[in-house]
Structures are given as C-alpha cells and as structure tokens.
Amino acid sequence: MPKILGGRFAIAILIASFLFAAYQLPAVASSTDPVEYEELADLGPTQDADEETLVAQSADDDVNDPLEPVNRVIFQFNEFFYDIFLRPISRFYNEWMPTPVRDSVHNFLENLKTPVILANDLLQFEGHRAFVTASRVVINTTVGVAGFMDVAKELGFERHKEDFGQTLGVWGWGEGPYLVLPILGPSNPRDAVGKYVVDSFFDPLDMWLNNVDREEWVWVRAVIDGIDQFARITDELDQVKKTSIDFYAAIRSLYRQKRRAEISNGREIQLPPIPDLGYDLEQPSEAPALGSTSPAPAAGSSQQSSSWDAKVRPAAVETAERIRLPAQPLENPTAPHFQPATGNSR
Q: What are the residues whose beta carbons fall under 8 Å from the beta carbon of 295, sequence distance 6 or more?
C-alpha cells in the first residue's frame, strides 16, 4: 500500500506540474522574447555611446537549454511549491529548533548517504577519497553516535559529495540539455538518471526498507532530508532571488558551474546555494565582501550576511552571456563580477 500511495503521489506531482506548464506556457514564451535593457548604470560605467544601451542577446546563446519555455514554467511551479510548503516549514524549523539539534540531524542524514558516496568514489577510481569516505562512516557511526556528531571532520576527514551523475561525467558522458524537474529542481538527463535511478541501488538502507515493505520510511527520510537541506539555505536563496535580473538564468548558471566543480573533484568554488533537493545544498563558506579586503566574519556573526556580494558574483556569468555589457577588467578571472558605476552613466 505505501508503495502504491508513493507512486500515485509522484504521478500526481508530475501531472500537476505539467498541467501548470500547459496553462502558463504561452505567457512564458512571450515573456522570454529578446528584451532591451537601457541605462543599467549600476552594472558599470559605459565605454562609449554605442555601449550605453544594453541589448539582450538572442536565444542562440550557448546555454544548452532547448526546453527553456517548459523549464521556466516548471521552475515557476517549483517556486510556488517552495513558497507554499518548504519556505514556511524551513523558517519554522530554523526558528524553533536549536542549532545543535539541526546540526545533529543534518550529520545523521549525511552519514546515511556515505555508502552511495563510497560506491561512486570507487567507480571513479578515487582511492584516497574512498578511504576518506570509509573512514568517515566508521568513525561517525561509532564514536559519532550513529552519525549525529561529525567526529571525522574534527580528525581531518572532510566530507565530500559524489553521485552516479558525477561518475558518468568523470567517465566522459555529456550532461545533455538542461532540465528542471518538478520539486527536485535543476538537473539534466545524465544527472537525473545517475542520481534518482542508479544511486538508489547503492543505498543499502533504502533497499532494505523496500525489501521489508517499509517504503513509507523511505519517504519520511526523503521529506526530512529535503526540509533539512532547504532550511540551511533558504535565506541565501532569497538573496539570490532579490539580486538576480533573471532568477531562472542565475540558478541555471550556478547549477552548471557547481556540477562542473563537483565532477572535477577539484577545489570547491564559492557559489550561492541552488534550490535542488537532490544535491548538496549546504551553506557555502564565507568569503570577503565585494570590493573589500577584510576577512569574512566568523560563522554565526551578525556580520555574516555582509559577504553576500562575494557569493553572488558567479551568478553574473549567465547574465553577462544574455546581455551585452561594457568590457570591464576583472580582478580575479575565476570570480567574475561587475565594477560599480562611478558618476553618471550618460
């Protein structure tokens, strides 16, 4: 019975999202026509008279989003769902649940995911990372009391993320067209198959629950994990939304940058969080504020939000692709941002 109810719930979500898409598609399609932006002085001083008018580029930009009209409607449906359910629940959770309790719940849920991470570490032939993952699960499950405490991190075994979508990327599989999945958010065919199909076979707890007809606990775990993940980044997502010219385009750009960084297994880059319940949504570490050389405030400081300008810099990448901007020298090529305007724009 739980399996039948779960399947019906998933089908109902899909039907609702696509009905919403069918209803909204004409309006969205007309709203995505090329638009001219004039006198955006806050993006930077103009170089000459020809650059004073910023014109949106055509839809031929290399964003690999052939389903953009449909994706935008599903994106709007997701935002509606987040506004109605996830954001109120997440804010209540943050306000009424003490931070140590929230951290313990998060650590416990992350510890349950280590078999999936370990399997993908091995499939990518990442011996050192596999050793770190195996060490983490042993230490945290024992000394860390079933994973409620992240003792392994204190011992130098840092947490990292892996999924079969990343493994396919390491093997050379292309990502395919950009997709927005109902409720789950940004994705693509490679990541959707890897994350939501293959990874389920690497999760011993979910497999055991399914085998003993306890599928309802699989859903309970997924719901709690979704609330935990979203609650950790809900305020920062609001900031991305407020500071983005095109919230959809900003999330698309951030998602693709984030996945490239994860697949490369290189140094983690400073990116604002992405509303995707299926991927790592932890709060990024603090960075210096835009135009400031002072170090970022410590976690929990009242000045922690002052680093936001530095976090939203990567969101400008896709905006720069969609509109013609005056050429500006970059202080750091890996962290694109715009020089604040000085004086009158005309």
A: 288
Return the structure tokens found at 122: 């091995």
Whether the CB-CB separation of 328 and 42 falls below 8 Å is answered with no
- Eight-state DSSP code of residue 298: P
Asked if residue 266 lies in contact with residue 126, where contact means CB atoms within 8 angstroms, the answer is no
- Residues 6 or more apart in contact with residue 113 via CB below 8 angstroms: 203
pLDDT, tens digit, 9 for 90 and up, residues 5-24: 444 444 444 444 444 444 44
The residue ranges of the chain whose pLDDT is under 70 are 1-62, 266-346
85 secondary structure, DSSP code: I
Per the CB < 8 A criterion, the answer to whether 61 and 317 are in contact is no
pLDDT in tens, 221-239: 999 999 999 999 888 889 9
Q: How many CB atoms lie within 10 A of CB 149?
A: 19
Q: Residue 97 corresponds to which tokens in the numbers above?
A: 């649940």
- pLDDT tens digits for range 115-146: 999 999 999 999 999 999 999 999 999 999 99
Strand 185-187, strand 36-38: pairing? unpaired
Half-sphere exposure of 140 (CA within 13 A, CB side): 28
Going by their DSSP bridges, the two strands 36-38 and 179-181 should be labelled as unpaired
Tokens 């230490």 sit at which residue?
Answer: 139
pTM exceeds 0.90: no
Three-point CA angle 260, 175, 323, nearest 5°: 70
**Helix, coil or strand: residue 179:** strand
* Cβ contact 223:217 at 8 Å: no
Task: Report the residue count for the chain.
Answer: 346
Spell out the alpha helix ranges (H) of the chain: 2-31, 68-81, 87-96, 99-112, 114-123, 127-142, 151-154, 164-170, 189-193, 204-211, 215-231, 234-243, 247-264, 308-311, 316-322
Short-list 322, 326, 335, 337, CA closest to 59: 322
- If we measure between CA atoms, which residue out of 169, 142, 174, 173 comes closest to residue 155? 142
